[in-house]
Every structure is written in structure tokens, then in C-alpha cells.
Design brief:
alpha+beta, Immunoglobulin-like, Purple Acid Phosphatase, chain A, domain 2, seven-stranded mixed sheet, 10 helices, 33 strands
């Protein structure tokens, strides 16, 4: 989950509009979940959509890729087939494209066309593009019940991005109401299914819910996504062999983990699948930047320690990532010809000292309580973390940047092994300066950055609860911000617990803009003031930069300006194409689960206007077998009808029908 919480306990209009009144847009039928692209390379990119049929059937369709938003100059087209086994998702790896080029794409099925999405390929590997400017939005931690995804909307409006880097917690697995922002008064913004995610249809339904969100759809429409998972795509504080939020009675963890992986690959525009691919990968932007996306959650991560006092075996250190992934990263850093080596990393890499929160910060037992709350981060895997730092230093890897998520807060660090001497009994467990030794290459100078091997920028949450919300006080969060990286005059020696921490914000939601140039990188923090209000606003909250070869962070007094994309991309955002109003169906049958079913099943439907609803089960012969539910004047919105009793039905194949006044949809189901 988040890294530190426990320390202190332009949308489319249509009529009213339907798009604004509903948590999905009925005019997008049957492409209700929009379109997306991802994993761009110099000659290819993934394009994605999901089709929602009225009746269970294999679906044949086409896709087109063009260099113009009107789809006149088509450069690639092809066909696809999808069905219920893939949850009607479509994922095409479009190859034969040109480097550094903006493309537009769409899908067709049932004689309907999807929205037109925009994407962009990367520069050629090894291309001398040092005069370029690269810009990325960096996001993580979007909790549907935490608030509206305003950050996604703001990112969608930008026309200067190469891609969006998503560092995980794309969804949250909790039951409805379990992790909800108390200030969010929109009762319709509720998790579906209402239970915690355990089985395949649960995970599929939650991705379906998230991808119906208009702000998320707009971001995916306009920019390619480069994504990794974190824990909540599985379960809170997940690791290879278990999770804190996987309890006895919730089934086999390995099966739950495999299901979550498979559904992630279905619903996300990432290359490969759960059987044939690992998620860590390299995406190169010529000689300017190499991006290494890590999997610090599932690939080899061992259970975190309960306390930092638990010893590690130096011959067999605790793994945050597998040996294969560690060696892959080091070899790629060693062989990289790029100016900047950027590591997309789920959890915060730098150490953060929080003992000042103790009532008595000279009591080892008290400070240990607070320090031990962050063992899920890289700090809990100290030997492997230090081994990576050693590799960076010994091989003199220059211009390494970590981009991290998970913490729900904004941070910027110089990356160093031991920024202060702490906690040591001879100093009453208070932090002491650790002067840089130029001969031994140890210690750290916070003024010059000597002893730092890299820099780290950490993105705030899109909507998941941050420190200020957890504490219920912006003022207390502001005091904590000061204590994190300033001398504390009320303690002996005015100690600074985190002199390597150069920027911190504990109370704002938003995203980062990561700007890459030949001579520097800069991260600008953009914040959305209130994720519980439907009013979308943002402001620049500060910036930090690192100059080429400095391995050190300096503050920026102004944001790097938004730049238009290079020709021909000054171009056109993706048009927001919809079908006509006559094509809007009264209801949508999004899914039925589980299928095959045992004693009960659940149905996920959308209602576009108040209407009557009848849920029935028919035999394949057409004979009515059972009426499951009958509602008069059911409210518009998303509905999840759970645990409908089918225990009296014999094993076999049936048809579940959803009938409203003016529409019928059905799906074939199997009862075991």
C-alpha cells in the first residue's frame, strides 16, 4: 500500500448530458471502455479496446492506423477476433511504423467505429536525438472511491507529452466502502463488485469500472501508456508468495495472483501476456533516454521483514526483485548509450528516517516503532538496495534517475546509502551528519551532493488518501513536511533526519511532469486541489531539477514550459468521436460472473435512464426457467446485482437475459 501513512495514524456533452449524469458514456456503444495504446517502440505500439456485445458471440472487427486524425492516410489496417475468453478485449501489436511519429487509430465492430486514439512511437535506438525534449506525465495510486481522477483529465489536455508512465495501483482491490474518502459525497462512485477482488470476474469487473471513468478514458485516448503493476492490482502489500491483504479463507494465493496477472494483461495496453512475458522491460528513446520499467512487486519479491532488526543473510539477501531482474537491470545500465538512464520503480527507493515522530526520539524502542512501518519499501530489502547502489557507483553509471510511486505523496531525493549516521546509541539515537570521504567514497554532502549516485522523483497519488487526509489536518501535514528535511531546533544538535530529501509535499494529489533534455532533467509537480469535487483545477506546486553528471537535485523556481510536440505533432489531439444518439441502448450488460457458476451468480449492468428491469434465466430452447429479479423504475447508473440464487437449477447451459422497457441483452452461462 502507501509507504508512510501509518507513521501518525472537457468531456462530451449529450443531452443533460448523459455522459455527465452517468459514470460511463452510453454514446460510445459498443466501445464503452474507450481505446488505449501503450508500450511504444521505434517501429510498433500496442493498441487496445474492449467491445461490449448485447449477446454472447465471437466478435470480428477491424483496426486502422493513420498519420492523420481524420484517418485518411492509413498506414496499417487489419482484422481481429475476440470473445468471452478474452473478456471481449482487443490488443494489437501494430508493427511497421516509423520512429518518433504520431499516429491515430480506431477500431470497428458491429458496423460501429470507436473513438479515434492518438499514440506516438519512440526514437530509433541509438538515434542521436540529444537536441530533443522528452516529456512524460508520471502517475500512480488512483483509488476510485478516493475521489475523481482529475489528474488524468489534466494530463489528457496536454499536447506536449511523449507518453504517460503509470507506476502502479491502477486499480484498488478493496470492497466497497473499505478504503473510501469520507469527504466524497458521490454515492454513485462506488466500487464494483462491492466485495474484495478474489476471482477472475471480480478483477475483470473492477477494471471495467475503472476504464469506464471519463477522465481515465480521455488520458488513454490522447497518450500512450507505459505501465507496471504495484500491489493493489493483486492485494495490498503483495509479494511473490503472499500478501498482507490475502487472508486465510480467501483461497490459494498463487491462483489469485495468476488471475490478477492475466486480467491485467487483458485490460492494459502492455505487450505480451501472463504466460509468455515478464513485466520488466526496456523502452529506449534514442541517445537521450533509456527507460527501465521494474517489477518490484511480484517478480522475486520476498516477504518483507516485520522489523528492520531482522537480520539479512549476506550470502542470500532479502529480494525486492529476482536475481534475474537485478542482473538484467545492471547489464542494461552498463550497456546503455543513452544520456539518461531512468528507472520506473513502484515503491520508494531512498531511505526515509521518521524517528522524529516518536514521543521520545532518543528511545530506540519508540523510534523503532515508527521506522518499522516502512519495511514494505526498498528499505526493508537493504542489502539488495545497497548492492544496486554499489553497482551504480562502482561502474560509474552516470545520470541515473528513479521514478517512484506508491507513497501517495511527493518526494525528491539524492540517492545515497547513508545520508546521516542513524540510529546509533552513542548519539542517543539522534541523526548525525555523515561527512563525505572523497577517498573512501562514503558519506554524503547535502550541499554539493557528493556521495549521491542518482536522483529520485516520487509522484503523488491521483486520488488515494494522502498524509493530510489520513491525519485529518493540512496544518499537521505541513509541520511534518518541515520536520522531514529541516533541522529540528527542539532536539539536541538541531538534527536533520533527511538532508538528502530536497522536496516534499504530504497533502496534495496530482501528477509529475518529467522533462528530459540533454543537459538536465526536471520534475514539475502539478496538484489538483480537491478530488472530492467535480470541479477540475490544477496548479504548479514546485519543481526540482538535476544537471547532467551532477547526481544531485536542485530546486527550480519555475516550471519548465509546456512545449509543442515536434513537427508533425504540433498536431492535433485525438478527436472525441461518438456515434449518434439513435444508437444509444437503454441498458448495457457489462458482465456476468462467475461463469461457470455454482450456487449463485452476479450481474454487472448499466442503466442509461430510469426504467423497468427484469433479470431472467432461459433454457437454450427458449423456455423461461427462472425470474431472478424484477425492478420497477430502477435508477440510472451502474448496478451490480450480487449473489443471485441459482442453487435450484440443474447443471447445464442457460441464457441469462437482461430486459428493460426498450432493450434486451443476454449472455450464455454455465451452471456446474
Amino acid at each position: 500500500m502507501n509507504y508512510f501513512y501509518s507513521i501518525l495514524i472537457l468531456f462530451l456533452s449529450f443531452g443533460c448530458s448523459l455522459a455527465q449524469c452517468l459514470p460511463y458514456n452510453p454514446a460510445f456503444r459498443p466501445f464503452y471502455h474507450g481505446v488505449a495504446s501503450g508500450d511504444p517502440l521505434e517501429d510498433r505500439v500496442i493498441i487496445w479496446t474492449r467491445i461490449t456485445p448485447d449477446f454472447d458471440t465471437a466478435i470480428q472487427g477491424t483496426y486502422s492506423v493513420a498519420t492523420d486524425s481524420g484517418l485518411v492516410n492509413v498506414v496499417k489496417r487489419g482484422t481481429f477476433v475476440t470473445d468471452a475468453d478474452q473478456d471481449y478485449t482487443v490488443k494489437i501489436d501494430v508493427d511497421g511504423l516509423n520512429p518518433s511519429t504520431t499516429y491515430y487509430y480506431c477500431f470497428t465492430a458491429f458496423d460501429k467505429r470507436s473513438q479515434v486514439g492518438r499514440t506516438k512511437t519512440t526514437a530509433s535506438v541509438g538515434e542521436n536525438n540529444l537536441s530533443d525534449v522528452l516529456k512524460f506525465a508520471v502517475v500512480s495510486c488512483a483509488n476510485y472511491e478516493g475521489g475523481y481522477f482529475h489528474a488524468y483529465n489534466s494530463i489528457a489536455k496536454r499536447n506536449d507529452l511523449n507518453a504517460v508512465i503509470h507506476l502502479g495501483d491502477y486499480i484498488y482491490e478493496y470492497a466497497a466502502g473499505e478504503y473510501r474518502n469520507a469527504r466524497l459525497i458521490d454515492s454513485a462512485r462506488m466500487n464494483l463488485p462491492v466485495s474484495e477482488l478474489l476471482i477472475r470476474k471480480d478483477y475483470r469487473t473492477r477494471y471495467s469500472l475503472y476504464n469506464l471513468d471519463s477522465n481515465l478514458q480521455l488520458m488513454r485516448l490522447q497518450h500512450p501508456l507505459i505501465a507496471v503493476w504495484d500491489d493493489h492490482e493483486f492485494a495490498d502489500n503483495a509479494y511473490d508468495t503472499g500478501a498482507e491483504n490475502h487472508q486465510p479463507g480467501e483461497g490459494d494465493w498463487s491462483m489469485r495472483k495468476q488471475i490478477a496477472k492475466e486480467v491485467y494483461y487483458e485490460w492494459m495496453p502492455v505487450r505480451g501476456n501472463a504466460q509468455s512475458a515478464h513485466l520488466y522491460r526496456t523502452i529506449s528513446y534514442g541517445k537521450l533516454m533509456d527507460l527501465y520499467m521494474l517489477d518490484t512487486r511480484i517478480d522475486g519479491r520476498q516477504k518483507p521483514p516485520t522489523t528492520f532488526d531482522e537480520p539479512e543473510d549476506t550470502l542470500h539477501p532479502r529480494h525486492m526483485i529476482s536475481n534475474d531482474q537485478f542482473n538484467w537491470l545492471v547489464e542494461n545500465l552498463k550497456n546503455s548509450k543513452a544520456q539518461w538512464k531512468v528507472i520506473g520503480n513502484q515503491v520508494v527507493f531512498s531511505n526515509l528516517n521518521v524517528g522524529f515522530a516518536a514521543e521520545d526520539p532518543t528511545s530506540y524502542d519508540q523510534i523503532s516503532y515508527y521506522e518499522n512501518l516502512s519495511t514494505d519499501s526498498w528499505e526493508g530489502y537493504l542489502l539488495q538496495r545497497n548492492a544496486l547502489i554499489d553497482s551504480i557507483q562502482k561502474n560509474d553509471f552516470k545520470n541515473v534517475v528513479f521514478l517512484s510511486g506508491d507513497s501517495h505523496s511527493s518526494w525528491a531525493f539524492d540517492v545515497t546509502k547513508e545520508p546521516v549516521l542513524y540510529p546509533l546509541a552513542q548519539y542517543a539515537y539522534l541523526p548525525q551528519p555523515n561527512p563525505y570521504d572523497s577517498l573512501a567514497k562514503t558519506g554524503y554532502n547535502p550541499e554539493t551532493g557528493a556521495g549521491s549516485c542518482a536522483v529520485e522523483f516520487c509522484t503523488p497519488s491521483v486520488s488515494a488518501e494522502n498524509f493530510a487526509e489520513e491525519l485529518g489536518s493540512d496544518s499537521v501535514a505541513a509541520i511534518l513536511e518541515y520536520f522531514f528535511n529541516n533541522p529540528i531546533p527542539v532536539l539536541p544538535g538541531n538534527p536533520n533526519y533527511n538532508p538528502h530529501l530536497k522536496f516534499v509535499n504530504l497533502g496534495s494529489h496530482g501528477y509529475m511532469i518529467f522533462d528530459v533534455r540533454a543537459d538536465s532533467v526536471q520534475t514539475d509537480y502539478y496538484y489538483t486541489p480537491d478530488v472530492t469535487s467535480k470541479v477540475i483545477e490544477e496548479y504548479w506546486g514546485g519543481g526540482v531539477a538535476s544537471i547532467l553528471n551532477s547526481k544531485h537535485i536542485s530546486n527550480s523556481s519555475v516550471a519548465f514550459p509546456a512545449l509543442p510536440k515536434s513537427i508533425p505533432d504540433i498536431a492535433t489531439p485525438a478527436p472525441r468521436v461518438i456515434t449518434g444518439s439513435s444508437d444509444i441502448a437503454e441498458s448495457v450488460l457489462f458482465s456476468v460472473y462467475p461463469n461457470p457458476a455454482g450456487k449463485s451468480l452476479s450481474v454487472f449492468v448499466g442503466i442509461n435512464e430510469s426504467t423497468d428491469l427484469l433479470l431472467s434465466i432461459y433454457a437454450l430452447s427458449g423456455q423461461l426457467v427462472k425470474i431472478m429479479r424484477s425492478d420497477n423504475a430502477i435508477d440510472k447508473g451502474l448496478h451490480s446485482f450480487r449473489n443471485l440464487d441459482i442453487s435450484d437449477l440443474k447443471s447445464g447451459v442457460y441464457v441469462l437475459q437482461v430486459r428493460t422497457r426498450n432493450h434486451i441483452a443476454s449472455k450464455k452461462i454455465v451452471i456446474k
